[in-house]
Amino acid sequence: MKRLIECVPNFSEGHDLQIIKQITDCIEAVEGVRLLNVDPGKATNRTVVTFVGEPEQVIEAAFRAIQKAGELIDMSKHTGEHPRMGATDVCPLIPISGVSMEETAAYAQTLAKRVGETLHIPVYLYESAQSNKSRSNLSVIRAGEYEGFFKKIKLPEWKPDFGPAEMDVRRGATVIGARDFLVAYNINLNTTSTRRANAIAFDVREAGRTEKDAKGNPIKDAAGNPIVISGSLKSVKAIGWYIEEYGVAQISMNLTNISITPVHVAFDEVCRRAEARGLRVTGSELVGLVPLQALLDAGKYFLRKQQRSIGVSESELIKIAVKSLGLDELGPFKPEERIIEYLLRDASASRLVSMSLTRFADETASESPAPGGGSISAYMGVLGASLATMVANLSSHKRGWDARWEEFSDWAEQGETLKNELLRLVDEDTRAFNLIMDAFGLAKSTEEEKAIRTQAIQDATKYATEVPLRVMEAAMASFPVIRAMAEQGNPNSVSDAGVGALAARSAVMGAFLNVKINASGLSDKTLAADYVTRGAKIQAEAQVEEAAILAIVNGKIG
């Protein structure tokens, strides 16, 4: 697994796009770093930048960006709605793959030390990079903001972790840390009142509010400590503000653990709290990037509330999520630019399935040996699973069957999962073939090169045998869905279930041909025989299932 970390620095400039571009140019100049998103905000006068790469590359890019921001941004002239304390206000590192949180924290400490000692900017560590938990919370560190830090930094308990204990008039101070993926999320209200927006923010944020008497004085417990009423949402930070650019007040939220409080839960809770205060939520906006699963979960959540099937395509789930959350109220929401997995994905991994039907047929018919029978077998499996899913979705919405929507939704979700797995294998089969061709192209001048080439050919051949075997397994797994739809699904679509069975059986048998021909090239004949034995068993089971389903279908058709 490639070692990747994400960096999401927030720069205190949201108006001058030339300044922002000079900063992002420094990031893109580091080889191996990929700039994913640049999200400027005029009202907040702040830009959130997202980039990703291997740790050492990301650290270098972050350092250069912090250095450039310090040269271009004058904090003594800065104003904006968002709390801030420096030109580079905060610079979090987030582990993406192949890197632990502990390792990410160590990289954050390395970056902070370099910034403090080389650029002479006061630097504070936060979250997982900070060992002193009394000063690991960003809002606690930033309290007082830029204007208040000239005195705060002189306090012994607020000495910076790195750099001078002297507030830099032009560059301010910077907070660098390591944290889990955070979703910055703003919910729009039909009011211009910051006070009312704050009231809702205090209702929902985990920190809640201090209980006060009729005169506005804090109520204290027997020990003399202020009594705090916790908010309704865990792992949520929130404040209310007015955004002049949009002419509305917002609840600005940081969802620090979306497995505890997902986006859709935060949205619905704010809707409920707003209504209780005589306000309405009109929409919302995501700042920066969001994980794919967050929108898929939201789409399923809102479909369940409508008692509709959740076994629909990924793109449909995202569309439902965007419309339900009102993510397009303030501007277009483009999934390809806002979902982190879409920005990181390798286009070559889905080259075939991204083609039109005509282009895919032309590619298959061309003189190139790939895509060939293996990819076509996988695609026949896709069609079989898709037909079963279609019948399940039609059955879920059939008039008079309203009480059964969840039963068919479950079947549709199973079919959708298998369809997606088989789609992935369409391209994977061609990739496996190309790996064999690459192995045969390796040098073979010396004995060492010959040994390396032989081993590479065997490894690639093994993989090229395993891929069609996985196609067989996935296509076989679609038969229970197909059979259930033939037996219990919408009777008007029973023939579709029959065609699904034919396609799934053909996928299994076609893939088995590829298992056998590729296994024949393995030098390990015991392993080759095992592959063929497993494939033969699946093929026999598929033929039995197909016959049974066709008997059901023909019995209903008459």
Q: Describe it for me?
A:
The chain has 558 residues and is α+β, with helices and mostly antiparallel strands. It folds into three domains: 4-178, Formiminotransferase, N-terminal subdomain (Formiminotransferase-cyclodeaminase, Chain B, domain 1, 2-Layer Sandwich); 183-344, Formiminotransferase, C-terminal subdomain (Alpha-Beta Plaits); 347-557, Formiminotetrahydrofolate cyclodeaminase monomer, up-and-down helical bundle (Four Helix Bundle (Hemerythrin (Met), subunit A)), CATH 1.20.120.680. The protein has helices at residues 17-28, 55-72, 101-119, 138-142, 145-152, 194-204, 263-276, 292-305, 314-325, 335-338, 340-344, 357-365, 373-396, 405-440, 447-477, 479-488, 494-519, 525-557, and strands at residues 4-7, 10-11, 34-41, 46-53, 88-97, 123-127, 174-178, 183-189, 209-210, 228-229, 236-243, 248-255, 281-287. The strands form three sheets. Strands 1, 2, 3, 4, 5, 6 and 7 form a seven-stranded mixed sheet that branches. Strands 11-12-8-13 form a four-stranded antiparallel sheet. It has a two-stranded antiparallel sheet with strand order 9-10. The longest helix has 36 residues, at 405-440. The chain starts with a strand and ends with a helix. The model has no long low-confidence stretch (mean pLDDT 94).
